[in-house]
Design brief:
Elements: E1 7-11, E2 14-19, E3 34-37, E4 57-60, E5 63-70, H1 75-79, H2 84-93, E6 95-98, E7 106-112, H3 115-133, E8 140-145, H4 149-166, E9 184-190, H5 195-207, H6 209-216, E10 221-230, E11 240-247, H7 253-267, E12 282-286, H8 315-321, E13 325-331, E14 333-338, E15 350-355
Antiparallel strand pairs: 1-2, 2-3, 4-5, 5-7, 6-7, 8-9, 8-14, 10-11, 10-13, 11-12, 14-15
Helix pairs in contact: 2-3, 6-7
Length: 357
């Protein structure tokens, strides 16, 4: 790491630097990080009285106390190997840090004799939490469902024709086709680590209802799914083939909705921005599915990969089916979908939803 350009983390509008001090391994073999506040250094008596912007520090008979909501899956990063991280935090800040048992959702409680000491400990815990949160695999994603019966039928017909005409091409076989019941456009992915965070994401999705209905004028959007495209530079070595999705009226309203949703969830701290604009695509073939029906493609950060992905030769598929028409349908919803789940329709289980009309 360049010491003159340290990695920075933005938490509640304040900037912190991330310092890698050594490697320690937990059960998941994660690398431990030590993350420090990049503002003025504190003296031993905590003369720099930091204030907590989002956590209330209350005065008690014995000093000061602050409770922080932290998902239980992140406790181990505050505890550290054999409790070393917690002991170091307590020693450095002259506080006591109480953490619930692993797997029990609750609050981390920090107590100390001085308000500034508690504030300092809160800041360091928050930075650790934010740093390791980014390493968690995503659990949910915002999606436009494409599993309309007409589109599903179109995909099944596409699969039959591709296998009939192109099965001799390298790597083209049935297991790399998308499950028709799970056809979708991924808008963005989220790591929601407990029920409270899922509820928060659902609330934020509801807050998007107004601007979405302004864009759609309170009506479903007529989409057409026509044409296929590939994602890399060599059509002879392709991992992902996707269907192109456009509004029938050729407007950019679907793109507007997707970009506004990402903007809202990024601002809420629930999503990490990966691109300037959402790339809307409906995956129809993906080598990550090869001979493994449990693997799912989200088209975004965190997408699973196998240790060895065998690409396929898509030249004939593109030549013969480049303008393939899967069908058209009326899109009327945005869903907060749960990864690795299935509802009664075969689509992903929905944790929340909003409708255009």
């Amino acid at each position: 790491m360049d010491v003159l350009r340290p990695a920075l983390i933005n938490i509640n509008g304040r900037m912190y630097r991330r310092n890698f001090i050594k490697e320690e391994h937990y059960e998941e073999e994660e690398e431990e990080e030590d993350v420090c506040y990049s503002g003025p250094p504190e003296s031993e008596d905590f003369a720099a009285d930091e204030t907590c912007d989002t956590n209330y520090i209350e005065q008690t008979d014995k000093g000061y106390r602050c409770a922080i909501d932290v998902p239980s899956v992140l406790y181990k990063y505050i505890i550290g190997k054999k409790g070393e991280t917690r002991r170091r935090l307590e020693f450095d800040t002259k506080t006591s840090i109480s953490i619930p048992k692993q797997g029990v959702e609750g609050q981390i409680v920090i107590t100390g004799s001085h308000k500034a000491a508690v504030s300092s400990a809160v800041t360091r815990v928050e930075v650790l939490v934010e740093s390791f949160r980014k390493k968690q695999p995503f659990t949910h994603f915002l999606s436009f469902p494409l599993n309309d019966p007409k589109i599903q039928e179109g995909l099944l017909s596409f699969k039959d024709e591709v296998l009939r005409q192109c099965s001799q091409d390298h790597g083209v076989e049935g297991s790399i086709f998308q499950n028709p019941a799970k056809l979708h456009l991924t808008i963005g992915t989220l790591a929601l680590l407990n029920d409270m965070e899922v509820k928060k994401a659902c609330e934020h999705l509801q807050e998007c209802q107004n601007f979405i209905r302004e864009i759609t004028e309170g009506k479903p959007l007529l989409l057409e799914v026509t044409g296929i495209e590939y994602m890399n530079d060599d059509p002879a070595m392709v991992d992902v083939l996707y269907a192109k999705v456009n509004l029938k009226d050729r407007s950019d309203r679907l793109q507007m909705i997707a970009d506004r949703l990402v903007e809202h969830f990024v601002s809420a701290g629930l999503m990490v921005r990966e691109w300037d604009r959402v790339k809307l695509h409906g995956t129809v073939m993906n080598t990550v599915f090869r001979k493994n029906s449990t693997v799912e493609d989200m088209g975004g950060p965190g997408r699973q990969t196998t240790s060895v992905r065998e690409a396929f030769d898509a030249r004939n598929v593109l030549k013969k089916f480049g303008a393939y028409r899967f069908g058209e349908f009326e899109l009327n919803s945005v869903l907060l979908s749960q990864r690795y789940s299935t509802d009664c329709t075969g689509y992903y289980t929905s944790a929340g939803s909003i409708y255009f009309s």
